[in-house]
Amino acid sequence: MTYPSVSVGRPTTSVQLDLVSLAAMASALELEPGAVRSVGDTVRALRVVRWHEWLVRRWLRALAQHGVVDLDGDVYRVLGEVSGAGVGELDLLHTRLRITDEVALLHRRALPQLPALLRDDVTAAQLLAPDRTVLGALAGERLCLFTAELDEACAELVQRAALDRPQPVRVVELGCGTGRLTTAVLKESPFLLEHYRFTDISGQPLRAETLDVNQDFAAQGFLPGTADVVVAGHTLHHAVNLCRTLVRIHDLLVPGGELVFTTPIGDDPVALTSTHFLHSPQRGGEVPRGGEIFPSSHVWQTALRAAGFVLKTEVSVGGRSSARHHMFHAVRDVA
Ligand SMILES: C[S@@+](CC[C@H](N)C(=O)[O-])C[C@H]1O[C@@H](n2cnc3c(N)ncnc32)[C@H](O)[C@@H]1O
């Protein structure tokens, strides 16, 4: 299949990478200009396994946003083709956008294999094996050099919150993983270490306590009103229900307690054709938020308000790129 390039000036690096990914989606879905099809017919014709069907819908939504299809409920009309950058430039695009090695590798290997991935003839985990891990890709998704900037901004906010309070300040970190954000916070405020609870969903290198953001906090040993500050780096998108998790964090905090977290914002075509395969639900499970893995900042703002937080600061890095990352600083209401 060929994709004619539209010459309206050279697109930015991130747009080029988006176009390559969108072109691969269109090719995998076997879109033919003028065709009218239903999503159901498409998944049947392509033999898409049930747990990846959500991705077909997400791809069609992404293609609709770029004017390639007109999507109306379950039916879509193909309006045209995607003008894409050459796949030969892929490595350069990844490097320029500071995409992490794990994600770049998965993306490069996945693009030509999208139909096989949809059929589960090959899995994203196999594309990363044998030298890489799924956890590695998930830990690195949407991370880039910009992320360090936000980690430092988080560390400053946590320090300010701590200095504004009588000691000792109790910090709970969610999803500390290999401790990138932890390191930034404790470098800025080593005095917090004494009352710092490192947590993650399962045993991690930092010997974290187990705390699953999708389960009741008190039942896991994190009682209401026992934290002054909660921090979470690139973790809260694992909440199946954002509002429910934010309410749990709200209850864990004392009135006036502070939540500082970073998260990727917006599903982009690179993620949709690489790491999002790793977010497909387990057999019998359901993909969260209808397949919106990285909700928009607006969704986060609404969920924070609904959970009883007052939003204090928002910072975005990465511009309109596939590396876009966001920081939120919110305070628990005192009611
Ligand atoms: C992208 S890593 C971020 C790690 C670390 N915070 C950092 O900044 O490098 C996401 C982390 O979320 C954790 N995680 C995944 N699902 C979770 C859940 N339901 N509850 C708590 N943590 C979870 C993972 O184990 C992983 O350590």
Can you offer a commentary on this structure?
The structure is a single chain. With 335 residues, the protein is an alpha/beta fold. The protein folds into 2 domains: 13-132, no CATH class; 145-332, Vaccinia Virus protein VP39 (Rossmann fold, 3-Layer(aba) Sandwich), CATH 3.40.50. The chain is built from 13 helices and 10 strands. The chain has helices spanning 13-28, 39-45, 53-65, 90-96, 101-110, 114-119, 124-128, 134-140, 145-163, 180-188, 242-252, 269-272, 297-306, and strands spanning 36-38, 69-72, 75-78, 171-174, 196-200, 209-210, 227-233, 253-264, 309-317, 325-332. The strands form 2 sheets. Strands 6-5-4-7-8-10-9 form a 7-stranded mixed beta sheet, sandwiched between helices. A 3-stranded antiparallel beta sheet has the order 1-3-2. Helix 11 (242-252) links the parallel strand 7 (227-233) and strand 8. Helix 9 packs across helix 10. The longest helix is centred in the middle third of the chain and has 19 residues, at 145-163. It is elongated.
